[in-house]
C-alpha cells in the first residue's frame, strides 16, 4: 500500500512540475516586448544638420553692409545663366546659388573669387577682360551709366557654330546656352582634357583658339 501511495505522489509531483514548466514557457512566448521610451532631449538640443545642407557660400567672403542694387543682381543673374552658370531665376534676389555662380565665373576667368555682384563684374561678364574702364567711359558706359548691351550671345553663337563644325551637336545655333550646348561644351572639354564645366569660360575660348585659330575672346570685346 505504501508503495502505491508513493508512486501516486511521485506521478502527481511530475505532473505538477510539467504543468508549471509549460505555463512558464507559454507565458514567456506570449509576453509582449516592452518598448523603451526614447531618451528625453536635453533643453536646447537641435536636430543635426545633414552634410548636404551646408551653405554653398561657406568659403566666400562676407557680403558688404550695403546691399547691391537689385537691378545689378538681376543683370548679373541673367548674363551668368546665358553662359551656363545657373544662379537661379533672374529676379534680383542675391541667394547662395547666385553667389556660387559668380564665384564659379570669377574662378574660371582668373578673377579674385568673392561671389559679390559689382559693376566691374558685370562689365567683365559682358565685354571680357580686354575692355578697360577708360574705354567704357569714352563710350558713355562708365560706372554710373547703364550697362552696355549684352554681347556674349554672339560668342555663344560662335561657340555653337564651331562645335557643330567639329561634330559635337550643340543644338540650334541661336546664342542660347541650352542643355544641348552645355553637353557639347562638356564633350569638347573632355576630349581636350580640360575642366568639364559645360560653361563658356576663358579656358574654353583659349582651347577653341588653339584648335581652330579663332579668337572668340576678341569677338566679345568688339
Instruction: Count the beta strands.
Output: 0
CATH architecture of the domain at 67-138: Orthogonal Bundle
**Which range does the strand content fall in?**
under 5%
Secondary-structure element order, N to C: HHHHHHHHH
Mean pLDDT: 75
Helix content percent band: 40-55%
Radius of gyration, CA atoms, in whole angstroms: 36 Å
Task: Name the poorly predicted regions.
Answer: 42-53, 129-152
**Helical stretch count?**
9
CATH class annotation of the domain at 67-138: Mainly Alpha
CATH fold node name of the domain at 67-138: Muramoyl-pentapeptide Carboxypeptidase, domain 1
The N- to C-terminal Cα distance equals: 128 Å
What general outline do the C-alpha atoms trace? elongated
Content-based structural category: mainly alpha
* Main β-sheet description: none
Please characterize this protein's 3D structure.
- Among the domains are: about 65-140, Muramoyl-pentapeptide Carboxypeptidase, domain 1 (Orthogonal Bundle); about 150-220, Muramoyl-pentapeptide Carboxypeptidase, domain 1 (Orthogonal Bundle), CATH 1.10.101.
- About 20% of the residues are buried.
- The chain has helices at about 1-30, 70-80, 95-110, 120-125, 135-140, 150-165, 180-190, 200-210, 215-220.
- The chain is mainly α and about 220 residues long.
- Residues about 40-55 and about 130-150 have low confidence and may be disordered.
- The termini are far apart.
- It contains 9 helices and no strands.
- It is elongated.
- Helices cover about 50% and strands about 0% of the residues.
Amino acid at each position: 500500500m505504501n508503495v502505491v501511495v508513493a508512486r501516486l505522489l511521485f506521478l502527481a509531483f511530475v505532473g505538477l512540475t510539467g504543468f508549471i514548466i509549460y505555463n512558464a514557457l507559454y507565458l514567456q512566448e506570449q509576453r509582449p516586448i516592452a518598448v523603451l521610451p526614447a531618451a528625453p532631449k536635453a533643453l536646447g538640443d537641435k536636430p543635426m544638420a545633414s552634410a548636404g545642407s551646408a551653405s554653398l557660400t561657406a568659403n566666400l567672403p562676407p557680403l558688404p553692409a550695403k546691399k547691391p542694387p537689385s537691378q545689378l543682381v538681376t543683370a548679373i543673374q541673367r548674363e551668368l545663366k546665358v553662359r551656363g552658370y545657373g544662379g537661379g531665376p533672374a529676379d534680383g534676389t542675391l541667394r547662395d546659388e547666385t553667389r556660387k555662380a559668380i564665384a564659379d565665373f570669377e574662378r574660371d576667368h582668373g578673377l579674385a573669387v568673392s561671389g559679390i555682384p559689382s559693376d566691374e563684374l558685370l562689365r567683365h561678364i559682358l565685354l571680357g577682360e580686354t575692355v578697360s574702364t577708360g574705354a567704357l567711359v569714352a563710350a558713355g558706359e562708365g560706372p554710373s551709366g547703364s550697362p552696355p548691351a549684352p554681347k556674349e550671345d554672339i560668342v555663344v553663337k560662335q561657340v555653337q557654330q564651331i562645335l557643330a563644325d567639329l561634330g559635337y551637336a550643340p543644338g540650334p545655333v541661336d546664342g542660347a546656352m541650352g542643355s544641348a550646348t552645355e553637353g557639347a561644351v562638356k564633350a569638347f572639354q573632355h576630349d581636350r582634357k580640360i575642366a568639364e564645366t559645360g560653361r563658356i569660360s576663358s579656358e574654353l575660348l583659349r582651347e577653341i583658339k588653339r584648335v581652330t585659330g579663332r579668337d572668340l575672346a576678341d569677338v566679345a570685346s568688339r
